[in-house]
């Protein structure tokens, strides 16, 4: 309530819209305290005063605006008492004291006007008075407030004052605290710096989109003050440093490097946005010269530094660093973390490091390297040596080489960055150069940066020759194989084909392929015939090849036993180029429908990949798990994992598992009855499957889609060639036991009984050889019952199919279909039961087919669980979507929601995208704002 407002008789209150109540951005405690007071006063309580005292830029004004919106929502009249700000024009002249009668008269006039306006509101509703920036108000105005507060002490009025902490001892601050002591008061503040989650929430609120990790890293680096975060975001947007794609805001230029890559860059922080650099340098400029100089030397040591190292670099006692380091901590530039100090965020460190002149930076790196070598900390010294060592310095190269070899298994990103910089120093004919190049390529392969790995390996092989480059060639072949270029990979190792040492290359590379070529099988047999002559890794690879061969031959139990034998032999940690037999085990367990065991194995695969830092394989566990979830009938979770797997595959440039991932999407879309989506995903599979593989999977999916859209006769055109070939027919059955009944049913519907018999005989042979695998036993009996129209033959098969929900539902449907001519009532019962099962896991297409069968029997009914929903709005959300929306609106992260609902974070993300679309919103902030 400014003086101008009083003298003009109060302009209408500027009440924030109720919709403006957004996420609390880390101010939950303060807002809860204010809302409690609002509720108490609204319920008949007396006047209360809130004093919010905090530093400039900490979010006082934002908190007042949120309080005003809350009060308006509770039926309060909100009086805007915001005072003129120092930066918004000429400050109001402050009156030092009440000198003379004229000043008393003026206070009386201001108080009378204020009281009259508040009394007018109080006749109808309680009142909130907000006064921001008390430090800029005239003392006469504050005295007038004091008079009114005393008179209206029993009235339902909440007074909120915001004061900059820097002015707490100034006349305005002292007067405010003097006035408040005479009333019921609550003091809030100082407001703590925003947490990481609160920063993300605030950025989402400003940009109306989700920030990516690069944007978040910058925003978290400006001290946690809301004003600084908002100023940075607006500056980045104004200077066109941000791009928006798919509701996600990213940095427009090359991503900011992090971790070791940024530590070994020749020009630190060169890719940081200028707006961010200006803001951080402005903060640094407020520090003393001594503190800035200490921070510059500390920055050369790294984003983390022990105080004793800093003291040694400066030639001082540790105690002499107390003052400058404490100043830097208070300014939010550094923090203490155990035995070390850390820069608040990595981008801040890069800005500080960038303030050190290049020549001095090189000299300081040399000083640091010497110190660390003397301390026998060679790994840390290597980081500094890449900045200061001269070309051909063998001592420096030796230290760097040992460091990268030690870092490769646990920190491939660090190893790649350090080895790549080391190559700039190594001599062209140095043996160390080959080691550095091989390590860098191996690390890049692990990280999934296959393009960079191939380019670096190809370049270095032009410079290196002979046996010393064999390992480098192996890693080049591995990178080529992983990105689907099998022909090029074979060319790389072709000239070593007759060498005994080529066996591991051939085995380890080809275990990534879904096909077991005769030459690979022969090599595997040779290895296993003389196991003592080969390493555990090679023997494990050979056993994996043998397990797959046994599976293709229908020896399922032996195949699983062989994978277990390979798992026991595999090295730990395994080379990234070795196909871990765990993968094969998970794949096989899914096909024999031991789904819980399959999920446990997939989790073991995921954990192994994470522990060994093999980002290149991040799509693999998603592909394996998506298949299991599809069989279990969790279509949303299967689609979410498959989609996430495709994204991971695209990031790493590894198409090896895309066929399986896209197959899951095709099947899920077919189950739901979305033929357009199924067609789109099938085309994606056909265009992206490496080397034209896998032919059989494409045929099966194409036939399923054709059957759904055009009928059985056309579907058989896709299947006939597969069914007529014995090997392909066996593989069709082994790929998915539940596909047997579908294939038999399709062949019979098309009038091709002979082809139906071929399928049934094949699955019976497999089931007969593997009676312990109930899913194949069920498939054999199911197929035979369909072929012979034997209702009794279907009895007892539900339990044999186990957790394969679609197979069970189709079994019940087949039972109802076979009963139509002999027992209508039971047929209706079974078809209803089948429809219920289809509905339970969202198989709308299959449920619709059953409804058509029921209509032919004279039964007209709608979807078993049908519930009409609008296309948009809260009522359009499914039960699961509503649960996800409620939890996200309450502030839970995707991972927390996943834990709460027993699903994966990818599934939560899938549901969130549907929620955003149906509610026409773009972010979690929007969801929290509109949640009922």
Characterization of the model:
With 932 residues, the chain is mainly alpha-helical. The longest helix is centred in the first third of the chain and has 22 residues, at 101-122. The chain is flat. The model is unreliable at 1-21 and 82-100 (pLDDT under 50).
Radius of gyration: 36 Å
Low-pLDDT residue spans: 1-21, 82-100
**How far apart lie the N and C ends?**
33 Å
Helix percent reads 55-70%
- Give me the number of helical elements: 47
CATH topology of the largest domain: Serine Threonine Protein Phosphatase 5, Tetratricopeptide repeat
Protein name: ATP-, maltotriose-and DNA-dependent transcriptional regulator MalT
InterPro entries: AAA_16, P-loop_NTPase, Sig_transdc_resp-reg_C-effctor, TPR-like_helical_dom_sf, Tscrpt_reg_LuxR_C, WH-like_DNA-bd_sf
Keywords: ATP-binding, Nucleotide-binding
GO cellular component, one term: cytoplasm
What's the helix and strand layout?
Elements: H1 3-7, H2 28-42, E1 48-54, H3 60-73, E2 77-80, H4 101-122, E3 127-131, H5 139-151, E4 157-164, H6 171-180, E5 185-188, H7 196-207, E6 210-211, H8 213-219, H9 226-238, E7 242-245, E8 248-251, H10 260-264, H11 274-285, H12 289-301, E9 304-305, H13 307-314, H14 322-330, E10 334-337, E11 340-343, H15 346-354, H16 358-374, H17 378-388, H18 394-407, H19 412-423, H20 431-447, H21 450-463, H22 470-482, H23 486-494, H24 502-510, H25 518-529, H26 536-552, H27 556-569, H28 581-591, H29 595-611, H30 619-632, H31 635-652, H32 658-672, H33 675-688, H34 695-710, H35 712-724, H36 726-735, H37 738-749, H38 753-769, H39 774-788, H40 797-801, H41 805-819, H42 824-840, H43 844-856, H44 879-889, H45 894-901, H46 905-919, H47 924-930
